[in-house]
Amino acid sequence: MAKLIFNKAEVLNSSGATQFTVSNITVEGAEPTLEPDTVNVQNNREIFESFTGRIVVRSTNTNQDGGSTDILASAFVSKNGTTPTEGKLRLVGTTGTHSLTTATTYIMGHRSFENGRLETVLIAQASDVDSEAAIVVSTP
Fold first, then answer.
1. Which of 70, 86, 97, 122 has minimal Cβ neighbours within 10 Å of its Cβ?
2. How far apart are CA 115 and CA 119, in angstroms?
């Protein structure tokens, strides 16, 4: 079984076109999760009603790749509680590994100093009744 290794993140518009790329993802900074949301049904049994896919990305970059535009200045990222343009967050796998993409959602961002260095954090979370739609896995 291959390990998931990510070398960059991409912010996509709702159609899936890349808006910008963020490199220098920290080793501990890629956190994809898929959590079931349960509901009780008859006889106290639980079923998965839906799934919440979440991707958290930490990068030592403050600017988008290939330019001097601040990552948090993008219309696709909210840093202050405003509603951003809907988009998707993709973790791009290195050659031969998988990539992960959230469903269309709002992307939140902030600066972090928790690891003793300046990092830009992007967070995207989306829910869907289909586990394969909340986070899409692309094969290499």
1. 86
2. 8
CA dihedral 3, 8, 14, 18 (to 10 degrees): -130
Mean pLDDT (whole number) for 102-111: 97
Q: What is the DSSP string of 77-97?
A: EESSS--PPPEEEEEEEPTTS
Q: How confident is the model at residue 57 (pLDDT cuts 50, 70, 90)?
A: very high
Count of helices and strands (H, E) across the chain: 1, 10
Domain boundaries, the chain: 6-138
Tell me the C-alpha distance between 124 and 57, whole Å.
9
Helix (H, G, I), strand (E, B) or coil at 116: coil
Q: Are 91 and 55 in contact (CB under 8 A)?
A: yes
62, pLDDT greater than 90: yes
Q: Give the 3-state secondary structure of residue 42.
A: helix
Q: CB 121: neighbour CB atoms within 10 A? A: 19
The closest of 9, 2, 35 to 119, measured between CA atoms, is 9
Per the listing, tokens 């009744």 go with 129
Which of 140, 4, 130, 19 lies closest to 69, judged by CA? 19
